[in-house]
Please model this.
Amino acid sequence: MEKFTRHTGVGVPLRRSNVDTDQIIPAVYLKRVTRTGFEDGLFAAWRNDPDFVLNKPEYAAGSVLVAGPDFGTGSSREHAVWALQNYGFKVVLSARFADIFRGNSGKAGLVAGQVDESIIEQLWAHLESNPGAEVTVDLETRTVTAGDIEADFAIDDYTRWRLLEGLDDIGITLGHADAITEFEAGRPAWKPVTQ
Amino acid sequence: MGRTLAEKVWDEHVVREGDGEPSLLYIDLHLIHEVTSPQAFDGLRLAGRTVRRPDLTLATEDHNVPTLDWDKPIADPVSKTQVDTLRRNAEEFGVRLHPLGDVEQGIVHVVGPQLGLTQPGMTIVCGDSHTSTHGAFGAIAFGIGTSEVEHVLATQTLPQAKPKTMAVTVTGSLPEGVTSKDLILTLIAKTGTGGGQGYIVEYRGDAIRELSMEGRMTICNMSIEWGAKAGLIAPDETTFAYIKDKPEAPQGADWDAAVAHWRTLVTDDDATYDAEIVLDASEVTPFVTWGTNPGQGVPLGAAVPAPTEFADADERFAAEKALEYMGLTAGTPMRDVKVDTVFVGSCTNGRIEDLRLAASILEGHQVAADTRLLVVPGSVRVRMQAEAEGLDKVFIEAGAEWRGAGCSMCLGMNPDQLAPGERSASTSNRNFEGRQGKGGRTHLVSVPVAAATAIRGTLSSPADL
Model:
């Protein structure tokens, strides 16, 4: 996984709450067997609307999504994270993320930063009155800056460390293979098996 | 101090803990399907890794399979590639697979319990958010993303931060004709889609005890719809009776040892939860959604709400957007809402009891002239059981379409989709924009409401017949 320390890019104000994973990418786009190529399905239902924020040229190259609360609810599809990344997003900011989406982001290398709703409102106002304005997200200091706005964002310590180091989760766990083997030896014999 | 059920199951599965690290949790059962697994198997291949415990892994095909002509090659080439990829991966990595055409094929959350693989006190994961269904047996069960699927395949563990615990105590009894689906929709409308976030929720109380295992699965299934990490119910005699004699249930002395352990899986009297909610079951009525998230619901007897009724600005704005998308006007009685398609099925309500209930209401009636009723069994076993009981004939005589097993119109990934603007009453779990097909409008309902709606053509309960 690529290391993430600091990113500056065009901020995209998405004035919507409860953006579920079916809206981020509908199921019909989930048939690919790769981790790439999902950008076509990103916000598919809204992309035909000329007023949709990503259809405005100033925001089209956006890489920091500023969304309403309860972002990523619903399905466990990691394709939602890949679709955002495939499009070019590096960071999503919201006052509240659905658990599975936040977990998937951390695994796939998308920074899901939690900020107060009042900060989201300030960022929206700033990005809407300055289309194409940039937002800087610093994972080391856990801060987000845009124009005169400077605020902290929350991300759990472990995910932050992994993203900063660009570490592969599976590699870390396999380092504890002995502990897993030891645990397995103590499992009751009546636990079900599939074969 | 005593522990809650969730804490007991959690503690039994901790492989290791380190300062500033999430717990490493052992996974007892990993369920797999065609949509969220291909990239995980690719990851294993790239890193030269194997599946650590194929004997704790089970695959089936459900999301992307047709419910018509399932004995022929899949017509959509992209869907076919995805299903073929699962078949190749299962073969290469030695994973047991129940493919289309197999007697054990079906929705992964219907298949696990009916095989007896879902048992109390287990940790169960799947690359699907409705894995919470298995919590009905007193298991910690939750959905994971594809990176985590790969992690479980490689290590049979997952690093997990320990969630908080919440009790939802449901007192009293559900009134006649009111189901566990109405109960969970009522709860989600009260708490909002984020109300359970960060919690493993334990459903308890008399009304929960009185539910069948299938009714309990419906409740736990929709835990994710109010944002909970997982939902579970303490195992009891109902649970043990359901599991006994299932194909993969423990036998003989193993059964006795298992049940002895399962009986310890209750919340201790002196345990405390981080949060508690109390609901009175006797006040629950048939409940339907009007909006585009599962929290936007009202009793069937109520009217479409006006956005101005919501004090919170985000909720008001969401309501405006939802009414526009749903093509509804505030103040319209829900019973006046005309429906084009009724869908009975999904991991929420596609089990045999659901089909029996639907058939009992449809018997002697006809589906309304311009309404379509799609009945999709959750698994091939459910389909065969329904046919053995003659339920298929009831559906067909009423004018319904009787289909093969799969996720079908719940998520609009296979050909079973709503057309733009088409309105459904659906026993599934999500009414998101476009969930059942681009531009489709979904009302989430219980099985009795679905059946009565199919007959009358407008949102109805059996009492309206």
